[in-house]
Amino acid sequence: MKRQIPLVLVFIFGVLLAIQYFIPSEPSQKGYEFVLDWITIIGIFAMVLGIWSQIHVGYYKIRHRAEDWKYSVVTMVSMFGMIFLGLSPFGGLQGTTFRLIYTNIFIPIQATIFALLAFYIASASYRAFRARSAVSTVLLVAALLLMLRVIPMGPLADPINKIGSWMLLVPNLAAKRAILIGVGLGGVATALKIVLGIERSYLGKD
Amino acid sequence: MGLIISIIVIGGGLLWILYLSIKGRDVDRRIVYLFVGTTVALAIIFRLEFGEVATPIVKSVFDKIENLPAGSKIVLSYDFDPAMAPEVNPMANAFIRHILEKKHRLYFMSLWATGQSLLSVSLDSVLKPEFPDAKYGVDYCNLGFKAGNEGVLNVVITNLRKMFPSDANGNSLDSLPMFKDVESLKDMDLLISIGGGKPGVKEWVLFAGDPGKVAMAGGSAAVSTPLLYPYWPKQLIGLLGGTKGAAEYEAELIKRYPRFKDKSMPALRMMGPQTMAHVVIIAFIVIGNIAYFRSRKKGEQS
Hints:
The complex is a heterodimer.
Chain A: H1 4-21, H2 26-63, H3 69-86, H4 96-115, H5 117-127, H6 134-148, H7 157-195
Chain B: H1 2-22, H2 29-45, H3 56-67, E1 73-79, H4 85-101, E2 105-110, H5 113-130, E3 140-145, H6 150-156, H7 160-163, E4 190-195, H8 201-212, E5 216-220, H9 225-228, E6 238-241, H10 242-256, H11 266-301
Parallel strand pairs in B: 1-2, 1-4, 2-3, 4-5, 5-6
């Protein structure tokens, strides 16, 4: 039963929504919007589940002094602190303290982590980006030319820009379109397998 | 002067690393990190800036906004998080300036929960101080964040009020004058999504721009920009890619409206450090390969 009900639901909704796509009428659209409402509702429940899971794991780690338990303390304090400040009696999402923390702590932290990539890329470019074969040489030359596009190159800027644009709009575009079509076809095949109950990994092991 | 000092320091350092590499000595990764850090710091300290000229893919977005008649309806969606913000927020701010300067109507929204807070920052730091005459509900409005990813787009393309019965402040859309002739996104003149993840520009093209036959433009983090090229120029009228795209747009904005010259233009400012970092990365690739071929040659000889 635990496996059959989800399989039946997936089959019914998969087939109905596939048919709905080809019926451009008002009842069909209404039905579609009804299902979309359920996506939002399920998404909210999934978020609640995620928060509960975070609390459960964090509490377990802190209680048993598991490895790196101190990070869990920071996570829990931050999570509950932001929830507390985000509630309307304490200023809400537009409250001064909430926005102050978001703007001056959260944004710089995330931006810093993203910016750290520059250091790793520089190190990798020195150590690993080598012209070991014909294919890697093509990749290397293409990368160099594209990077040169963002550098002021004086009289060379125009030809480099043209070459860079050509690379993006011809070989890159051709490859991306091929990949997109491939991914699309793969998506259809996977969706069919799920709807027909052939692919069942989403149900878990139990 | 700053540029000369930077060239001497960076050039000297690169020559030293080249020397070590040719000698076959290992250059510790911490030295590489220090070198990149120094390069970026020099560019920030000396405020190095390089001129930017809008490329056709950026210029077409600018021209579209420029040529729309005053009062046109434009949606600007903040579909990004703080990690992407330094790269894509300058685009959003440049769009706000341009759209309001041209007296268009601006509809803000977000498909990312984090976008809502970043949008508030833009409203407080750019829109309100620079356009004090812009009236909420008449010239601009904030629809806020709505959960549901592309599902939201699927609905608002036919019925905006179903997903957004009220704006982010709880005002009914019917009470706001700028929604009088708006039923769905199909009534918009231009849709702009700024982001670099999912849902983002691609989802906007697939679920709003294309099915609704509404002109669509995008701004994206540099890493995801090449993935969006297949949609240009038909499904996307233009695309701003990373800091470079934002800087090109800012440059075009200043060129056309010199009054913005004194305003904060972060992308143009960031292009200095980014350019210098690119120079260093290119130099590292070249040095690394010189050392590789030299060691390979030595190996063959022995």
